[in-house]
Prior knowledge:
Layout: H1 2-17, H2 19-47, H3 53-77, H4 80-108, H5 116-138, H6 144-160, H7 175-204, H8 209-228, E1 237-240, E2 242-243, E3 248-249, E4 251-253, E5 256-257, E6 259-262, H9 265-289, H10 292-321, E7 324-326, E8 333-335, H11 342-371, H12 375-408, H13 416-438, H14 442-466
Antiparallel strand pairs: 1-6, 2-3, 4-5, 7-8
Helix pairs in contact: 2-3, 3-4, 3-6, 4-5, 5-6, 5-7, 6-11, 7-12, 7-14, 8-9, 8-11, 9-10, 10-11, 12-13, 12-14, 13-14
Amino acid sequence: MARAMAQSRIESRAEQLHPGTGRWLLVLVGVGVAFLLFTAFLAAVKSGVLFTEENLLYAALIFYGGAAVLYIGFGVTGAERDGRFATAATAIAFLLTTLAAGHRWYTAGHPPFSSIYEMLLSFVWTLAALTLIVEWRYRVRMIGTITLPLATLSVLLMQLMPAAVRPLVPALQSTWLHIHVSLAMLAYAACALSFGLAMMFLIQDRVRTETFLAATSGLLTAIYAGIATRFDPSGGLRVVAWDPANRQEIFFAEKTPLLVVIPSVGWLMFLVLAAALVPLGLYAWAIWNREEKALTWANRSFFVSTLLQAAALGIFVLRAGEGAYTSPQTEGLFATNLAASPFLLTGLVSGLFASLLYLLLLWRRPNLERMLPSAETLDRLTYKTISIAFPLLTLMIAAGAYWANRTWGSYWSWDPKETWALITWMVYAGYLHMRITRGWRGRRAAYFAILGFAIVLFTFFGVTYLLPGLHAYA
């Protein structure tokens, strides 16, 4: 009770310091949400169908995005008003996600567990629910600055994925599908929550701001280095061609998509990659030579790279959203679409979100530290969250093994998905083992939680698209 009253006094004092900023942020977000909802409503009226899964998820995306902006704004202004509206937007988005999931269940005749699209839907629902629970139960409102951008990115990715309801393959026609995937999504959402809590712990544990600079710059370098693999010698960016009539990718040959080149965008992505490397290089120089002034220049160059990221994202959306381009594989002009490059777009948005969160930390760290619970509380909450996630992971693997034996006659086949699920389990088992037997607390435990969630993301997405196997449908 005393802690809640102290937190309330801090937020009220912060609101008095930045009342105008908080009001303007609410107005801008409110106008943006209202405009997007109104245009979506007009489009739905024109189509003659209002209550559809697509419309519900688009409305949810608007509210998730608005909530993410308000949570970040709450970190900037400290205005309790921003926090309350962020929580309200999250609750509305959660309700819309629930309706979309229910609609999908009713339409498909089975729970939304049979594809990456459906599992993302379940993941977002669980993540939003856990975010609201942690806010209500533990009063850690700042958790939304990490979980809501993640939810927004997930729904954005869903908007670009094939969403057609297809009959279940024989392997999925089992009650064990519901059990296995329910446990997986609950566990993964808990892992995401532990990641957010671990990141906030590092802030409260006085990890240097420049360490976050290096980590964020490293993430950006990895994202744009991956995008640079699409670079065309002409200076353009290679993306997959799109058939607007059938709303699907165009294939040049079996399992070989047709690529088109968006002129000049490749050079722009290389420029952003170089801009991401500059603060990383300056950080290394500052640490090696113990030159604090270089860190100031590193932060300035990071701000410039953030502006370039925003420009690159805007240009890519405009150029890839519409237009017809040449292909290096055959003659003619072919259209493309954002739906043909879902992970490329998600990578761009992820990098921009990560950059904004670092700038929030850079500019408002003292306020953030006052608004967050103590390091001890965050460390304890991270442990509690992983203590929930680990049994769920264990039951998920056990249920999957039993299901596999019934379906394929073997409990374990070393399928890539199974192997990486086991690696994920081992990382979190290592966290709990070292904490219980060796008394690990603090930063080492937080780094374990962050590593675990990184492996969860690779297991969820990377294995599915890079290492196909028996779980190719998931």
